[in-house]
């Protein structure tokens, strides 16, 4: 996938999701249009084209791409630099149509939208227009599930299987967003949802504990390690307690984890005596399994058939998905299935992006996209075990045509 | 206000004579003892044999010696044979991943005594031998012990030294006991499989594996049904015991947090389903904790957490939202958004974090998670109650708070987390229950008494050779702490406390901020199974009955009573040591007792709910138990004897005086006499001071003279009307009156006996209800027949009634014929109440008393302990009269808005 050179494309909209660990951003750029203008023109051009589009119904007026990028929140300056360099912030909308550079507004969500508001104002002169996190997550998920072909998939025993979901049969579903923490949201329709549960044992826990235990430098490194690990070294399995026998009466096989990290108590081993790989693996299983279980219990509680897992914890990581799937499958006795989203990490940012419509800017763009033509996604394919180097990584873009009423 | 307070009469100085008398009594001790033994053999076999409530039960030793005709001097070697009545009949193990829990039962041999008083009482009360069959279970004690699994050898040593694997008596191990090749021990938990060979090799026993879940459920069901204050809620550091109606127990969710977590839906006995669980449990906490903090033990890790601040490691909602609440979804800024989430964004390494903070973050993460998953499962099955058990909790306040918070948070306050005092022993108890004849099938709440003896085989969780079986070791154990110069602040059992619930004295009990928990487990005592205990049948509403009048959950109240008991302690020790002849041995035991009891007090001050729900009655009883534990049979023996003698000497004069009065004046004088004589109370500080200032008779006279009506609580007129009627109407006399007597000496002799005599004269049967075991200077059921016999020498009414009641069978040969002939006479009887405390909990009384209550239509409760501290608010199915002099200013203010020495005469007609 050619990322192209963003600065040469026409940037229409930028939206941010500033989470506790990661900052996600997505922006729309038109292909091959207005690419010669300078930055100021870019901005006006974008606006113009939108205005034009409003008059012309049922025609694809904008061809472009949705780009996705992410940064570690702790290195938010990299993110600011990225925006600055690519002039992304200039594609935002001017408040109240005021001329010049006044009051540039960028949609943002996530806790950091509050925390870092001043920083964005100082550095880039833009105002973060805070969108509610849950609103954004749900809007993002609804958008993806309705608009993007082959967005959802199951992952069982290493096999990825796309699931086509009937748009009319989408609701209700449980959306589990695994960020630093985990939110569980019952979604009943567009803008209709309720945060029914959550857990504080999430991606932040994995990374935080993982860093302390393994000295990994990044989340992705930790994931990479876990891939090569063996949790039996550290977890207390049913077999360890029952001397290798299954405790079959309750359907527990000898390899079922009885107690995560439970073996670390009986050995005279110190932390250095364990392979970092094994530690990472145990940790991943513990957290994935737990999220899978709590999600299933909540789905059960509300009679929800589908559970979609999103958020940056997953990152398309096979073993994570496998563990969550196993967890859901185990506790539901096969009746519930875990579904994953290809754009899992960008739900919030996408939702923030779609929220522009609420305010009259770019109204209907996304809606029309959704309703009239599923995007033909040309997606880059995640580098599943790729390292996160803080900039321009794991990004992808969706080529899209925008139809307008 | 009219009490004898500040009375100048009391300034008299002729007490020296009294004191000299005391000294001479001590000198004549051997003679005294001789007399005593004679009496024991001839007349009043001890009542203790059916009441196995004290841990050392010295009374039993005496009785056995008597029955066997052993005339040797009483000494510790006689004590032992009797303790060998304890047969360690059953042992069960729960061998978990981290800890081994052990439950064993030591049984008492059933004494079918030839106690004639009892036999007579039984005949009188219609307790046939057939009735005995309603107590098919034998009394005994249930012990709880735990070991760390990786120190399994200590467990084996313990079993071996206690000979638990043979199922035989624990003290006859000096003799050659036959080894049972095929001995089996019930065991559950994963280790029952893993260590099966080990047990066979080391002890030659086979582990009989019981299903883990079966055991957990059986254990929980037993505890919830049989122990009154087993379950409690825990919110913001406050424990509240919950009494659960048996009929409403099921269904419930049982969450057992061991290495892993099991969640079990329980629908009834043996009816349950494991519905869920989680692999994030106690093992995770300990395992991760070890890796992250290098703690050497689970307890150390828990201890660390108490000084931790999880905000340095957890990512809070406030951290994400810049200090703002995310109130829209009900998350406050301090809610944990992501456990350990802060460990990612900073450039800190593991070594840069405080182990305390790590431990706390970990604890919160796991507790919160368990609470949440439990609630979701309860919700799923519509279960109202969630009980949390297992060794992860360990009575650790912060853990319980976190779990409670999670359940409350996620259920929006609709579900409640509850905890069990014996949380760690569910599996072991259940395995025990799987014995075909474990004897606990039909145990009822009222048959179990929990005791908290000192002297476990553990200090700080370490086993020190063989278990402390004998008193000497126990005392040495106490002394060791003194030698070490360790102040006994509070016996905080950070480590497995063994059977006593005590240990780990060295742990300081500092309190910190809000996160600081109590650092302690709830103590688990020894459960004494006393099958003969029953609920007092005349209670109007047994379910609502609460014996304690004073609520010790009020901290000020608690502090006050602790001070009272502490101040009284030196005097009590003096008396106790003197009662045992003031020998070096007695002094040593006295010191040990004082230390042990102080430790109990300190422990309870730190954690008032440590021994279950705490009332004043429990506190007073604890003191008596503690005395008995250090083999102070009867600290006030000589004092009681002296006062009885002095009072009996003036009884004839008093009776003559009474007989000269009109019926109406007599009744008033009698009640006045009871109230006046109730001043003789060694349990009251104020009265101990009085004792030092005057003779018994002087005090009594003065006290009675000062009786001026109206008393602070004065229902005398109503009572009088019931007794004497008004005008020409003569009311029917009561059929039978139960007189709950209080102190020895003037109180019983000059107060209650004359009242009993009056009732007898009016045709009412009288049953004197007295303590089974000594408490302070309270008269016991064992002593009463002597006193009555002595009184009867001067009074025909008493003599005939006593004969009719079978009290004088041995004393007077002629009486035996008389009792047969005169069965139509109203009898005077003595029954034991089943307890050894200055107070009485009417939910647990002797079967004798319960039987005597059947035909009773009048109850007279006398004295502070039985009528004020307890039962002041109790209501009965029959008429009840509560008589007491308040000998404590604070109690007087609190209870009757009066002053010290005010009197209570409360009469409550049948409901």
TrEMBL record, chain A:
InterPro entries: ATPase_NBD, Type_II_PanK
Any one GO molecular function term: ATP binding
GO biological process: coenzyme A biosynthetic process
Reaction equations catalysed: (R)-pantothenate + ATP = (R)-4'-phosphopantothenate + ADP + H(+)
Domain of life: Eukaryota
Keyword vocabulary terms for this entry: ATP-binding, Coenzyme A biosynthesis, Cytoplasm, Kinase, Nucleotide-binding, Transferase
Key word Manganese present: no
Entry keyword Ubl conjugation: no
GO cellular component: cytosol; nucleus
Pfam families recorded: Fumble
Main localization category: cytoplasm
Biochemical pathway: Cofactor biosynthesis; coenzyme A biosynthesis; CoA from (R)-pantothenate: step 1/5
Cell compartment(s), UniProt: Cytoplasm
EC number: 2.7.1.33
Similarity-based family: Belongs to the type II pantothenate kinase family.
Protein name: pantothenate kinase
Lineage of producing organism: Eukaryota, Viridiplantae, Streptophyta, Embryophyta, Tracheophyta
């Amino acid at each position: 996938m050619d990322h192209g050179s963003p600065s040469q494309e026409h940037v229409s909209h930028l939206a941010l999701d500033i989470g506790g660990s990661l900052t996600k951003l997505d922006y729309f750029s038109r292909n091959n249009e207005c690419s010669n203008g300078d930055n100021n023109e870019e901005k006006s051009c974008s606006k113009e084209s939108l205005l034009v589009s409003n008059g012309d119904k049922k025609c694809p007026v904008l061809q472009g791409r949705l780009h996705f990028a992410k940064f570690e929140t702790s290195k938010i300056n990299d993110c600011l630099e990225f925006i600055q360099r690519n002039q992304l912030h200039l594609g935002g909308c001017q408040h109240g149509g005021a001329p010049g550079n006044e009051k540039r507004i960028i949609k943002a969500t996530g806790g950091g939208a509050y925390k870092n508001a001043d920083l964005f104002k100082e550095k880039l002169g833009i105002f973060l227009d805070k969108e509610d996190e849950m609103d954004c997550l749900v809007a993002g998920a609804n958008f993806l599930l309705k608009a993007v072909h082959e967005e959802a998939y199951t992952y069982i025993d290493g096999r990825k299987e796309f699931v086509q979901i009937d748009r009319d049969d989408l609701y209700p579903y449980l959306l589990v967003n695994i960020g630093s923490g985990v939110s569980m949201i019952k979604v009943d329709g567009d803008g209709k949802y309720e945060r029914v549960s959550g857990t504080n044992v999430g991606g932040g826990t994995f990374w935080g504990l993982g860093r302390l235990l393994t000295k990994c430098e990044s989340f992705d490194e930790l994931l990479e390690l876990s891939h090569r690990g063996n949790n039996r070294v550290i977890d207390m399995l049913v077999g360890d307690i029952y001397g290798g026998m299954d405790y079959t009466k309750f359907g527990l096989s000898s390899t079922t984890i009885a107690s995560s990290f439970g073996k670390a108590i009986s050995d005279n081993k110190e932390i250095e005596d364990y392979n970092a790989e094994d530690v990472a693996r145990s940790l991943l299983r513990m957290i994935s399994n737990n999220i899978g279980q709590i999600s299933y219990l909540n789905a059960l509680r509300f009679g929800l058939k589908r559970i979609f897992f999103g958020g940056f914890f997953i990152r398309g990581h096979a073993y994570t998905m496998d563990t969550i799937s196993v967890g859901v499958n185990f506790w539901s006795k096969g009746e519930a299935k875990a579904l994953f989203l290809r754009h899992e990490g960008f739900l919030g940012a996408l939702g923030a992006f779609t929220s522009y419509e609420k305010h009259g800017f770019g109204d209907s763009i996304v809606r029309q996209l959704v309703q009239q033509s599923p995007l033909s996604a040309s997606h880059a394919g995640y580098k599943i075990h790729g390292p996160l180097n803080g900039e321009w990584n794991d990004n992808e873009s969706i080529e899209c045509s925008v139809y307008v009423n | 206000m009219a009490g004898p307070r500040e009375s100048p009469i009391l300034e008299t100085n002729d007490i020296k004579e009294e004191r000299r008398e005391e000294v001479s009594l001590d000198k004549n001790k051997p003679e005294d003892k001789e007399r005593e033994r004679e009496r024991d053999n001839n007349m009043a076999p001890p009542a203790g044999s059916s009441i196995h409530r004290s841990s050392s039960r010295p009374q039993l030793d005496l009785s056995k010696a008597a029955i066997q005709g052993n005339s040797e001097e009483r000494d510790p070697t006689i004590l032992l044979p009797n303790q060998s009545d304890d047969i360690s009949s059953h042992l069960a193990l729960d061998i978990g991943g981290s800890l081994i829990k052990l439950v064993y039962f030591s049984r008492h041999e059933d004494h079918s005594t030839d106690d004639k008083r009892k036999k007579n009482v039984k005949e009188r009360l219609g307790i046939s031998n057939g009735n005995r069959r309603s107590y098919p279970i034998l009394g005994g004690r249930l012990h709880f012990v735990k070991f760390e699994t990786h120190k399994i050898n200590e467990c084996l040593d313990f079993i071996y030294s206690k000979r638990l694997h043979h199922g035989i008596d624990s003290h006859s191990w000096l003799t050659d006991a036959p080894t049972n090749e095929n001995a089996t021990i019930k065991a559950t938990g994963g280790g029952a499989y893993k260590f099966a060979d080990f047990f066979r090799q080391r002890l030659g026993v086979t582990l009989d594996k019981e299903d883990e879940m079966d055991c957990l459920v059986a254990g929980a069901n037993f505890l919830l049904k049989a122990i009154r204050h087993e379950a409690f809620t825990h919110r913001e550091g406050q424990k509240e015991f919950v009494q659960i109606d048996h009929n409403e127990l099921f269904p419930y969710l049982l969450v057992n947090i061991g290495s892993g977590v099991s969640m079990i839906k329980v629908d009834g006995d043996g009816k349950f389903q494991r519905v869920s669980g989680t692999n994030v449990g106690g093992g995770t906490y300990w395992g991760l904790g070890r890796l992250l903090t290098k703690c050497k033990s689970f307890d150390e890790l828990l201890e660390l957490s108490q000084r931790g601040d999880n905000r340095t490691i957890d990512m809070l909602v406030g951290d994400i939202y810049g200090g703002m609440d995310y109130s829209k979804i009900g998350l406050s800024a301090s809610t944990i958004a992501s456990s350990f989430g802060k460990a990612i964004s900073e450039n800190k390494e593991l070594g840069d974090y405080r182990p305390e903070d790590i431990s706390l973050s970990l604890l919160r993460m796991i507790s919160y998670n368990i609470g949440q998953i439990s609630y979701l499962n309860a919700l799923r099955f519509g279960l109202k109650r969630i009980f949390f058990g297992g060794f992860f909790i360990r009575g650790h306040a912060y853990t319980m708070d976190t779990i409670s918070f999670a359940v409350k948070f996620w259920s929006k306050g609709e579900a409640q987390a509850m905890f069990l005092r014996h949380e760690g022993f569910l599996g072991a108890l259940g395995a025990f229950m799987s014995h075909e004849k474990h004897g606990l099938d039909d145990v009822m709440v009222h048959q179990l008494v929990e005791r908290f003896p000192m002297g476990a085989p553990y200090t700080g969780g370490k086993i020190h050779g063989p278990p402390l079986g004998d008193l000497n070791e126990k005392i040495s154990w106490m002394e060791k702490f003194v030698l070490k110069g360790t102040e006994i602040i509070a016996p905080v059992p950070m480590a497995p406390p063994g059977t006593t619930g005590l240990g780990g004295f060295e742990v300081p009990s500092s309190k910190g901020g809000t996160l600081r928990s109590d650092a302690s487990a709830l103590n688990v005592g020894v459960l004494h199974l006393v099958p003969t205990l029953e609920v007092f049948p005349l209670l109007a509403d047994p379910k609502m009955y609460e014996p304690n009048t004073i609520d010790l959950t009020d901290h000020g109240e608690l502090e006050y009573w602790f001070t009272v008991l502490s101040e009284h302690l030196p005097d009590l020790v003096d008396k106790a040591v003197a009662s045992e002849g003031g020998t070096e041995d007695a002094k040593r035991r006295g010191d040990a007792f004082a230390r042990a009891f102080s430790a109990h007090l300190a422990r309870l001050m730190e954690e008032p709910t440590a021994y279950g729900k705490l009332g004043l009655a429990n506190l007073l009883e604890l003191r008596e138990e503690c005395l008995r534990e250090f083999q102070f049979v009867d600290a006030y023996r000589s004092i009681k004897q002296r006062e009885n003698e002095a009072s009996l000497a003036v009884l004839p004069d008093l009776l003559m005086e009474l007989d000269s009065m009109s019926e109406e004046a007599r009744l008033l004088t009698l009640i006045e006499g009871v109230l006046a004589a109730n001043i003789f109370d060694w349990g009251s500080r104020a009265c101990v001071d009085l004792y030092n200032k005057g003779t018994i008779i002087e005090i009594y006279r003065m006290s009675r003279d000062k009786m001026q009506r109206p008393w602070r609580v004065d229902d005398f007129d109503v009572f009088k009307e019931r007794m004497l009627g008004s005008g020409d109407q003569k009311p029917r006399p009561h059929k039978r009156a139960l007189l709950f007597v209080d102190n020895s000496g003037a109180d019983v002799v000059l107060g209650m006996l004359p009242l009993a005599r009056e009732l007898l004269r009016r045709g009412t049967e009288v049953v004197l209800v007295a303590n089974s075991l000594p408490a302070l200077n309270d008269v016991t059921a064992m002593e009463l027949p002597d006193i009555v016999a002595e009184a009867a020498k001067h009074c025909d009414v008493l003599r005939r009634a006593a004969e009719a009641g079978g009290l004088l069978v041995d004393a007077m040969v002629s009486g035996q014929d008389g009792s047969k002939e005169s069965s139509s006479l109203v009898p005077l009887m003595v029954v034991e109440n089943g307890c050894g405390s200055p107070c009485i909990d009417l939910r647990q009384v002797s079967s004798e008393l319960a039987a005597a209550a059947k035909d009773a239509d009048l109850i007279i409760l006398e004295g502070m302990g039985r009528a004020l501290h307890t039962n002041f608010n109790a209501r009965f199915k029959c008429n009840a009269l509560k008589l007491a002099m308040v000998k404590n200013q604070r109690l007087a203010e609190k209870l009757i808005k009066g002053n010290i020495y005010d009197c209570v005469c409360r009469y409550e007609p049948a409901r």
